[in-house]
Write a structure and sequence with these properties.
3-stranded antiparallel beta sheet; 3 strands
Length: 88
């Protein structure tokens, strides 16, 4: 069974296989985190703006319908942005 680990902070790649372990230092790995996660099908979404919307909802500044519409738009924009980056 294979297991792959990326330590982006230490810029280290580790792969455990039935044949043993492969451990490599990869300079610049930290800078490729988004690219690697995207290739694995993992999408990171900044929830900072959504948290602000949630605070607006809880304080009564916006209603649930507006919260859901704006949240959907933010997530959609983020996904489109990630898709665009994967084409580069």
């Amino acid at each position: 069974m294979d297991k792959v680990s990326f330590d982006f902070e230490a810029e280290e790649f580790v792969m455990d296989t039935d044949a043993g372990e492969i451990r490599e230092q990869i300079p610049g790995l930290r800078m490729r985190k988004g690219e690697i996660l995207s290739a694995a099908g993992i999408i990171q979404i900044d929830l900072t703006d959504i948290r602000g919307l949630l605070e607006d909802l809880l304080s009564g500044e916006i209603d649930q319908e507006e919260f859901l519409a704006k949240t959907e738009e933010m997530i959609s924009d983020s996904l489109k942005s990630e898709f665009h980056n994967s084409l580069n």
